[in-house]
Amino acid sequence: MSIMQKESPSIPRGPNGFKTFQSPSLYASSPQEEDIENNVSRFVAGEQFYNHEMYGSLRHGGSVSFLSMDCLGLAAATFSSMFSYQCLTGVLQPLMSTQLVLSVQENVSVQRLIEMPMALSFLFGLLSDCYPIMGLRRKGYMIVGLVLNGASVFVIAGLSAHFESRESKDKNDPNDALVVLSILMAALASIGCIITYLCVHTRVIELSQRESLVSRGSIQATYLIFRRLVSLLAASFTYAVLGPVSGDSNVPLSTAMVLLAVISILPLPVILKFWKEEHYSLHTSMKVRGRIFWKIMQQKAVWRIMAFICFFTLFLSIKFSDSTNVIRKWSGAATDNSLVVKVITDVVMLLTMVVWRYVFMNRSWKQFFASAPLFQIIPHLLIAILVAFDVVRNRYLYRTMYSITAISDGIGLLNTIVPLTEIIQEGSEGATVGLTLSLQRLIGIFVSTNAVGLFQGNNFYDPAEVAADSSSAHWDVLLSLVLNFGLNALALIGLFFLPSQKLDAQQLRMYGGFTKAASSLIIAFSVVMFVYSLVINIMTFVPSLSCVKLVGGAGCSS
């Protein structure tokens, strides 16, 4: 049985073999097009092919608008997915530090351990492809994830209420069993969040494949813009709960958790009634689907796009936070309102989506994504030089330059959805999206784990010299950031693997062939990242190992 997507004889094809669901009458080639085909050995989509709709959709059903009744259930699910996860991560931080009495180092490690199960996105995606719930591959699992998240948050609220009711003298010595239970519930809530996100993300890609070539990406842009708006609401909720001062919340954490659970579950009736999806009556065993996907990972189009995503995620995620915080402090922006900063960042990211939708959606992928490292490095480097050498230390200039770097974050949101849309095959959508999210999460955990180890500030400069604002500290901090930016620039290597644009990606999928070692390399990379991060985080809780600098310790005395 061929691994490639089975095609119906009734489905017409374009002049170069690309499948379309539009009328065959559109395929009369002009003399200019025939001349192009006769004079090049490998078809390369030119700008002229974006000026008409001679190529159609990749999937049956017709295009839909995200802001329509057809997508009302999907929009409600998007709200629940984004709001619950962002608020959960924000509110859990004071819970870990104040009620569970964890050290800063342990707090960071617990958050990484909570995120570990989210690396199982691939398994959840594969499961949804194999075993539809009541014939629905996305909706059923979306509801399961939403209920799991809501129930776990309710349990966390109960545990938080218990910690709040204890006597002051007992608050610094919480019951170990309850601490473990709290961490377990937080992990289950995170699993619920990732299942909902996986289902929503996959469904958006499925709907995007129903759009014609010229408009493909429109629903993705609207979806990502909507997520930014929900992010603003979530940031406002977190700020209202925690207040401007860390550790001094305006609302009891137990009450905040109850509110979060209620708001997250509130869209459930809308999802049940308005989520529209195709029915699949037949199940496929995970063994069979796993073999099929193993072959899919060997396709050059798939593993090359995965390599691009990994390079961008890994190297653009590396941030020497301690050095950046020194620059922020020297500029006078360290005490800026966190909500205002978040609003500015989200608005810049939102505007990036709008610009992509109306300017870059049908232009070269390589040129567009190449701008991400540039927008992250250049503004950071300029303001670091100005502040480090005391040329200009102005908080407003710092915030302006720093806000420009949010363009890079906005572009980063697109790299996990735009290329995938062109190469995902029907029947393996969940597994492909899940694999992408798993790789992203593993890389994120790896980077954040090293943020308190290899990338710690005191590995590059003397904190005492920084406090004294000495000349040597200026150079040390700046050089550490130059190293940071050099690592960020390595993300450009990923562009080597990225197809030029939509039709180039489709051509690579159909005619690019296979690389047998690709599947094994992807799995090996994932296992190494997972084991490394798991071991480093576990070392944090072992007294004899927690002092190692690699895990964020101050160094072990001999």
TrEMBL record:
It is found in: Membrane. The lineage of its organism: Eukaryota, Sar, Stramenopiles, Oomycota, Peronosporomycetes. It holds the Pfam family BT1. Its main location: membrane. Keywords: Membrane, Transmembrane, Transmembrane helix, Transport. This is Transmembrane protein. GO terms for cellular component: membrane. InterPro entries: BT1, MFS_trans_sf. It is a multi-pass membrane protein. Belongs to the major facilitator superfamily. Folate-biopterin transporter (TC 2.A.71) family.
